[in-house]
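Contributing new records

If you add data, match the layout below exactly. Sequence lines come first and carry their own label; structure lines follow with theirs. Keep one chain per record. Anything else will be rejected by the validation script.
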Amino acid sequence: MHMADALISPAVGGTMWAATAGLTYYSARKLKQEMDDRQLPLMGVLGAFVFAAQMINFTIPATGSSGHLVGAIILSILLGPYAAFLTLASVVTVQALFFADGGLLALGCNIFNMGFLPVSLRTP
């Protein structure tokens, strides 16, 4: 689900941007330590699949948000938690910038909600 900018205050948006930036940095460092050469093409292909699956949106009445499939669990199973988070963060960013799903203020919240939470809940 993409939250719209109108649903959050600038303070919450800034806080979530900072949290998401920290998670992105941490994930990138961990992935750099344990990544092999075969994982990068798989990240691209699975990211494209999740992007296409998430383009099927439906509105949630009276909330100002939309719902859709979220591919974080399948990405986490196939790629591992760090690569899954980075892949989904890039998918959500492209959707926000080019397709107006969510907004820039809510981007940190959307990446956190759709990327970090499902991946962290799946990882033991």
